[in-house]
Amino acid sequence: ASDIRTDLTTVLVTEEQIHEKLAELGKQIDADYAGKELLLVGVLKGAVMVMADLSRHLSHNVEIDWMAVSSYGTSTKSSGVVQIRKDLDTDMAGRHVLIVEDIIDSGLTLSWLLDNFASRGAASIEVCALLRKPAAAKVEIDCKYVGFDIPNDFVVGYGLDYAERYRNLRDVAVLAPHVYTGE
Ligand code: PRP
Ligand code: MN
Ligand code: MG
């Protein structure tokens, strides 16, 4: 067990900033989907906090489903190989789908997901991501709703993990390199 504070260098996005931003995005999403039925698809496990908070900023009566995919495992680098651990329970044919993600890092996860979803016959598919790292992009993702563009550091908290830990931090913070280099 480690002391969570010495494992972090700087707080990048505070709890307050996150909630303000999600309220703003929620308003936009409500307006954009006025009169439409919306299916929110959360990408487990990282998107749990964003989904919980964003969905409660919507006045829309949405459906929520989850897809579990993983590409990072216990590494700080994406393996580039995305594995489905749990598929959707919902048939997205004819549905307006909004994918909810915590972060777009290399973009490989969302690029793979968007390809995977393309053949399922949705009426529309858009993406909402709380965080994005422009400097880390390996593929361009067309993301309609972005919370914050952040530098290319390994960040944890608010759903984001390193080796399954730190997801319960309330802020988004930079993980101190000693944690993953083992020094
Ligand atoms: C993380 C994060 C995104 C993805 C972004 O998920 O939650 O889903 O990586 O990285 P990319 O843009 O480089 O693909 P991870 O694979 O760690 O699984 P998790 O959500 O269960 O932590
Ligand atoms: Mn994830
Ligand atoms: Mg992860």
UniProtKB/TrEMBL annotation:
Query: Which InterPro entries does this chain map to?
Result: HGPRT (IPR050408), Hxn_phspho_trans (IPR005904), PRTase-like (IPR029057), PRTase_dom (IPR000836)
Main localization is: cytoplasm
User: Which of UniProt's keywords are assigned here?
Assistant: Cytoplasm, Glycosyltransferase, Magnesium, Metal-binding, Nucleotide-binding, Purine salvage, Transferase
Q: Name one Pfam family in it.
A: Pribosyltran
For this protein, the record's Gene3D superfamilies field holds: 3.40.50.2020
Subcellular location(s) per record: Cytoplasm
Name-wise, this protein is: Hypoxanthine phosphoribosyltransferase
**Species per Swiss-Prot/TrEMBL record:** Paramicrobacterium humi
